[in-house]
Amino acid sequence: MTTTAAPARQAPETGQPKGTSFASATWLVAEREVKSFLRTKGFWIGIGVIVAALFALSILPGLFGGGQTSIAAVGTDASRTLQGSDLEVRQVADRQEAEQLVRAEQVDAAVLPDLTGQSATGVRVLALSSPPTDVIAALNTAPPVDLLETSEVDGAQSTIVVMAFSVVFMMFAMGGIAIAQSTVTEKQTRIVEILVATIPVRALLAGKILGQFLLTLGQLVIVAVAAPIALQLGGHTDLLRLIAPALGWFIPFLLVAFVLLASLWAVAGSLVSRQEDLGSSMSLVMILVLGPYFGVTFFSENETVLTVLSYVPFSAGLAMPVRMFNEQAQVWEALLSLGILAASVVLVAALATRLYSGSLLQTGGKVALSKAWRRAD
Amino acid sequence: MLQVKSVSRSFGDHRVLQDISFDVRPGRMTGFVGANGSGKTTTMRIILGVLAAHGGAVTWRDTPVTQPVRQRFGYMPEERGLYPKMKIAEQITWFARLHGLDQATARRNTDRLLAQLDLTERANEALENLSLGNQQRVQIAAALVHEPEMLILDEPFSGLDPIAVEVVLAVLREHAAAGVPVLFSSHQLELVERLCDDLVILSGGNIAAAGGRDELRGRFGTERFELVVDTDAGWLRDQPDVRIVDIDGPRAVFELSSTAGPQADQEVLRAAMQRGQVRTFAPVIPSLSEIFKEAV
């Protein structure tokens, strides 16, 4: 046995490894995360369902619902003008009767003789809350339109947009569950011990969030490509024109909100040691996802509630884009809300890192938050 | 050289490690033994920075062990775990890159290790499809793939069949021969005895003994002798300075009392030869388990 040791292995084949920087460690974790998800069937099924739902929502109502647009026509001029169109024309006696039918929503619009001389076609169109495009199209030239209830945005369209935003928001907020699951997998298989011995815990957390963020972004791109096609096929080109600027706000809010929730999902995952226990630790995060979703869906008509929700970090990601779409908020409000959201991301991410580090290596049952906080050494 | 200096650690009120210090020297296999709960795993976790020490320090080449330093260590935790659904070659390469190797080197090292560990044919299978023994080999590959400058292995042989033990042993020896300090814990004392150059014995959170294997033998193993004669060896009982450990007809194992002179063994031999034929007269080397019992 020799007591003088051979020189320590200084140069493995291609020189000393440079060591992994924080950024490259984060990237390696993210890359693995993305690759492993792209390989799961569930991921692709999920995307398939979303795209299918998108097409179904925009095309099916046109096929089954509504049918012909019905028109109440006053006077012979109006009837004559509408001849040859595929509108269902109902002859009525006077403007009063036509107006009643429109208000009762028994007809979609009414066509009246124009008495002011403003109209080139000699007729006016009467509708409830938005200009009936197909009627106007049937009249060839655009006659003046009188709206009985003015609104910046069509109520029905607004409902669809709020619904669409909510569903997409939910989808991405819930996408964070994958972070919780992958964290538990690493705890359950104990691989976390090697990971923690090799790279900083912050890099592990950041990599997980980045990986899921990229996956989410990818899904978003697929939705962004599929949505216009679906809307076009469903004949909702006007809706598309309307949604486009609102998406400009929705996307940044969605992405920042994602990071906020993702940090929390990671903590939820780190608190338990087995997949079976995940449900219990995820319930709080679930509330933070579902709360805003139901809040905004129920109160989309209530401007006061919506205004409050648009500044609360957890609901801002959904509420503010809806307000921007409804043209209820100024640009500075959106920027302020985005600022608040970004600030809370920084704060929550810092808290989450501490809780995540404190609980990651503790196995056996659920780790109490207070214990996770103290153990973060 | 890795040095553990006065490291302490408590869990709640329970003090698990009390001021422990020892060295792991380059090119040597250091066996880390101790009863369950004596603090072996805790010590290893502290060296790897997985746990924080509550006192003391760990240094590598006289500088504190920080995260970048640790990245060049190879670690095999007691509780095994890799990604179950990831292909093994891909997984090992990923770990190499996580330790700072570039893709090409990572690939090359992976292929070489898989060949050494007889896993080349399974390279593209998901880990979960392998037997537990083979998963263990993959785990070892993951700890070695980045050409670590220091190896820390918690129970590297548990769960391995005898052939796999030899395979892993050969790989570890190769690393030690190249100058890498290797610290490994094991319950299999016979294996540690065969394998280690140095020994650290932990007992109840304290170092019971640490040093070269042979030095510890000298220190803790009381010198014993075996004597085999043709007739009954019962006369030994009346010999001065002799304490009988075991006697069975012509065969006896005895110790010399601490007051015996340096020539006491020769006197016993002479007395035996006066009585007849002596078939065996030899010192008995204490086994590790005896040292262990003695030290703890």
UniProtKB/TrEMBL annotation, chain A:
Region Disordered, annotated ranges: 1-20
Principal place of residence: membrane
Localisation: Membrane
InterPro entries associated with the record: ABC2_TM (IPR013525)
Membrane topology, record value: Multi-pass membrane protein
GO cellular component, one term: membrane
Domain ABC-2 type transporter transmembrane: 47-353
Keywords: Membrane, Transmembrane, Transmembrane helix
Annotated signal peptide: none
Pfam families to which the protein is assigned, alphabetical: ABC2_membrane_3
Transmembrane residue ranges: 42-64, 160-180, 209-231, 243-266, 278-299, 305-322, 334-356
Gene Ontology molecular function: any one: ABC-type transporter activity
Protein name: ABC-2 type transport system permease protein
Automatic annotation (TrEMBL), chain B:
Chief subcellular location: membrane
Residue ranges occupied by any ABC transporter domain in the UniProt entry: 2-229
One Pfam family matching this protein: ABC_tran
SMART domains: AAA (SM00382)
GO cellular component: plasma membrane
Keyword NAD in annotation: no
GO BP field: response to antibiotic
Domain of life: Bacteria
Family from the record: Belongs to the ABC transporter superfamily.
Protein name: ABC-2 type transport system ATP-binding protein
Originating species: Tamaricihabitans halophyticus
